Amino acid sequence: MTNSIEEIEHTDLILAIGTNTTENHPVIGAKVKKAVRSHGAKLIVIDPRDIALTGYADIWLRQRPGTDVAVLNGLMQIIISEDLYDRDYVAARTEGFAELKKTVARYTPEYVEKISGVKAEDLGRAARMYATAGKAAILYCMGMTQHVSGTDNVKSIANLAMLCGKVGIEGGGVNPLRGQNNVQGACDMGALPDVFTAYQKVAVAEQREKFSRAWGVPLPAKPGLTVVEMMHGATEGTIRGMYIMGENPMLSDPDLSHVESALRKLDFLVVQDIFLTETAKLAHVVLPSACFAEKEGTFTNTERRVQRVRKAVSAPGEARADWEIITGLANRFGYPMQYAGPAQIMEEINSLTPSYGGITCSRIEKEGIQWPCPSPDHPGTKFLHGDKFTRGLGLFHAIDYREPAELPDDEYPLLLTTGRVLYHYHTGTMTRLAKGTSERCPESLVEINPQDADRIGIESGKMVVVSSRRGRVTAKAAVTSRSPEGVVFMNFHFREAAVNLLTNPALDPIAKIPEYKVCAVRVEAA
């Protein structure tokens, strides 16, 4: 997030796009509801499904899945044509405006309505409401990123925010809501294929040499592979071993039949996790790790806040903290890693990671600090880009709409989109072992619009088969207008109805994220 969670409650307007906030991020969802109910904030929701937030919205734009760029370009076309954009901000703090203006000029409200289904008059109301708000925060999540156009979607959000001067101010900004605990921290620490910590590029010689000196080994300049690319490598035989840590791709990755085939072809598979997950059951070796309450360290949350994690109970059996497992393996491989504990690891992070330079364990003993915090006397940063952007001027990207990789046809006439429910988390590794959450949500459901259900001849509570070009699953139907006509929705928490047997592994060409949110399916009575 460019801004902070507490700012959401006190902004003038919230634009939520591609985020089912109350179910995926209930704490932040509560802030959004409080902002509307108690502080008079306006709310614009852009989402194909009738999620809980639409009940609080001043305007709900119900776009067809995968048409977000067209909708965002349409908002900007109206704002520019009606001279509602922040001319001074654009002139002083951005570049590339002329090309953006030229591109979005084609996206008239009528043209956008044909692409997205969003009514032209509603698009105009939303554009004027966002542009004229004093402070306006954009919230988004995986409903924007899990597309072949995911990078384009995020750049378009940034375009809209900069166009109206909403970046670099308190209560504004572009705020991605992280999908899992410490995803932000993992990315900050270089758990991405092309960067070291703090997003220092492995391809940049100066940055690479800094880490080589610190670690005493030469480091490659070539970026690694993303998850889906690794599965292709395993299938092709170019990857023969894999070490999977705290991840369950046998439920979370797209096209699960391909994933299983890839993992079974490996010569050696190691899984490090707290439970025997679906993926761990395929492993040659399972390394039992400690859970959050059984270890010391830090987590970095969605607002860039680095917080202490403290051991509350001892780990069971032979389970160890992740850092102990990794250092133990490194020493056995002949590379000495001699850390006394997480505090000493944090000191190394401070020395190599500029944005974490001043975030020491002693400073966050009682309260976390938001990066960037470059020095021990720095208070941390509540919101980013206050004076200038990291690159100097904010860059507009002129982006055209392009269709999803797979659309409905005669054989697969419906569009499937996926997501989560409030009572379960990710692949259900933990929540499905808890009695309360399992009682509240005991099974996967296929949400289908009443008109589609009537045409197919199915009723709520009846079992249906959902098929795509990659697989088929059987689950219970839930006939509801929450999903629009032509669209079905399933969550991915349940191994018994593993929706990722159906999803499309087509990748965003830049971020390499799969298109979980759009694929063509057929629904039939079981």
In summary, what is this structure?
It contains 19 helices and 21 strands.
Report, as a whole number of angstroms, the end-to-end distance: 44 Å
Instruction: Characterize the largest beta sheet: strand count, sense, and whether it forms a barrel.
Output: 6 strands, mixed, barrel
The general outline is: globular
Content of β-strand: 15-25%
Mean pLDDT: 96
Helix content: 25-40%
Number of helical elements: 19
CATH superfamily of the largest domain: Dimethylsulfoxide Reductase, domain 2
Explain this structure to me?
With 526 residues, the chain is of the alpha/beta class. It folds into four domains: 5-177, Dimethylsulfoxide Reductase, domain 2; 179-221 and 291-376, Rossmann fold (3-Layer(aba) Sandwich); 225-288, 3-Layer(aba) Sandwich (Rossmann fold); 414-525, Barwin-like endoglucanases. It has 19 helices and 21 strands. The strands form six sheets. Strands 14-18-15-17-16-21 form a six-stranded mixed β-barrel. The chain has a five-stranded parallel β-sheet with strand order 3-2-1-5-6, with helices on both faces. The model has no long low-confidence stretch (mean pLDDT 96).
What is the topological layout?
Blueprint: H1 5-8, E1 13-17, H2 21-24, H3 26-39, E2 42-46, E3 59-61, H4 68-81, H5 87-93, E4 94-95, H6 97-104, H7 109-116, H8 120-132, E5 136-140, H9 142-145, H10 150-163, E6 174-176, H11 183-188, H12 205-215, H13 227-236, E7 241-245, H14 249-252, H15 256-265, E8 268-273, E9 285-288, E10 297-300, E11 305-309, H16 322-333, H17 342-352, E12 369-370, E13 394-395, E14 414-419, H18 435-440, E15 445-448, H19 450-456, E16 463-467, E17 472-479, E18 487-491, E19 504-507, E20 514-515, E21 519-525
Parallel strand pairs: 1-2, 1-5, 2-3, 4-13, 5-6, 7-8, 8-9, 14-18, 15-17
Antiparallel strand pairs: 10-11, 11-12, 14-21, 15-18, 16-17, 16-21, 19-20
